[in-house]
Amino acid sequence: MQKIVILDFGSQTTQLIGRCVRELNTFCEILPYDKFPHGDPDVIGVILSGSPLSVYSEGAFHPDLSGILGKYPVLGICYGAQYLSWSGGGKVEPVGTREYGRAHLDVTDKACPLFEGFEPASQVWMSHGDTITAIPAGWHRTASTESVKYAAFACDSAPAWGVQFHPEVYHSLQGKLLLRNFVVGICGSRGEWTPEYFVDATVAQLRNQLGNDKVVLGLSGGVDSTVAAVLLHRAIGDRLNCIFVNHGLLRLNEFEDVMRDYRELGLNVIGVDASDLFFKDLEGVTEPERKRKTIGADFIKVFDAEASKLKDVKWLAQGTIYPDRIESRNITGKVIKSHHNVGGLPEGMKQKLCEPLQWLFKDEVRGVGRQLGIPEHLVGRHPFPGPGLAVRIIGDVTRDKVRMLQEADAVFIGALRESGFYDKVWQAGVILLQDRSVGVMGDERSYEHAVALRAVTSRDAMTADWADLPYSLLQRVSNEIINKVKGVNRVCYDISSKPPATIEWE
Ligand code: XMP
């Protein structure tokens, strides 16, 4: 399978580059900047990502490009472009103030294949603190903007290009065309990477890998584990055993509803209600990461106990997807939240690990789910955190707080579904705040909890914006929650974007 390699220098938008390439039905791999797979015959092109660093600063990433340049088509984006220039003998200097936001391209080399089909003054998005003040000898400028002389440039003797702007972001209006020109036009992608291809190839590969072995998989009700299960079921049938642990922190009636869905999909699934254990261990736990660790440890305990009742199981399957893996090993090394698909496995695990979705982005998982015939209400579900409502309750977790949150969540999600907004937002939910506030209900003073509604738009959960929901919808949800949910007397709407906030409050 042809692939594009994206060398990651640590930019926030590296994943977006990957997703754009995949949208062109082309497989790509995001690898650390110094881990180029020399000798891999499938590589058809290389993209160098942006970075929070400056090329000239101490500790900046300076990989050896000699085995890459001239051998494969190369596209450098932002830092990638600056590095191409700087390492070839050009000059990169601080701008003074960061250049951030929209600019308009003046394509100076009309023959440049990257800009084929570009409109005049096409809007591009800049985000950089350095600028290229001289390009190396043997390179030429292909475009500039109002304030950036070398907005794009090309090598005269090798298939290499640099662009100072970010074609991968939404606000670069013809950015996708630029990436198509590179991936399809220049690198010659045949567009082989489709859901149909993935299903056929993965089913064949799973049959080969698993033989007659038995596999156990933890279902969570979410899209990823459901798609992983159905894919495995297609490959090995009832040799796949699924376990769905109810930690008591799911949404209203979710355990029962999802168990029914799984059975209808023909999956061989055991449901375990372990909520007593989770509530007991969560008693008095308020710190978010401790909540996650407690839930993770209990989950493993319950799952292990159930799995060990099954005989001769050689494999543990997980619905880990590509962003889980990339987020877990950010090259800048900072952990913001511990997402527990990765790195949370029991020590001394006896089974081998099988992760059939490990190369897919979320929307690819949905595409594969549809290809497998999984009903839309399962494939289109919003993401939901593994630790469930526990990370939507600020402070300690009690059954009564979970009850309040489940009821409020059901009102909000129900209204989003009815109004058609459910599918327009990436994710939505309700957060129960710790503080109480005074209200008046009838003639009585009330002193009860406040909840915050959270609904965001996003493409990959890496960045997100609060959803612009109509006031009338918010009003309806607020009334219904306050009227119906005992213990809640105030409703707020969270209008924070990510960054700097995150999607969940904990
Ligand atoms: P944040 O809050 O980091 O969330 O902006 C990004 C996405 O990840 C989900 N999330 C989690 N998923 N375990 C999970 O399985 C977790 O501990 C966890 N924390 C956040 C969140 O719902 C959103 O989709």
Please mark out the parts with pLDDT under 50 across 5 or more consecutive residues, or reply none.
Answer: none
What is the count of structural domains?
Answer: 3
Q: What is the CATH class of the largest domain?
A: Alpha Beta
Principal-axes geometry comes out as: globular
Distance between the termini: 40 Å
- Can you list the strand order of the major beta sheet? 2-1-3-4-10-9-8-6
Mean pLDDT: 93
Sketch the major β-sheet. Answer: 8 strands, mixed
Instruction: Report the structural category.
Output: alpha/beta
How are the SSEs ordered, and which strands pair?
Blueprint: E1 3-8, H1 14-23, E2 27-32, E3 43-48, E4 74-77, H2 79-87, E5 91-104, E6 106-107, E7 123-134, E8 139-144, E9 152-155, E10 160-163, H3 175-186, H4 195-210, E11 214-219, H5 223-236, E12 240-246, H6 254-264, E13 269-273, H7 275-282, H8 288-307, E14 313-317, H9 322-328, E15 352-354, H10 362-371, H11 376-379, H12 399-419, E16 427-441, E17 444-458, E18 464-466, H13 471-484, E19 488-493
Parallel strand pairs: 1-2, 1-3, 3-4, 4-10, 11-12, 11-14, 12-13, 14-15, 17-19
Antiparallel strand pairs: 5-7, 6-8, 8-9, 9-10, 16-17, 17-18
Xanthosine-5'-monophosphate binds next to loops.
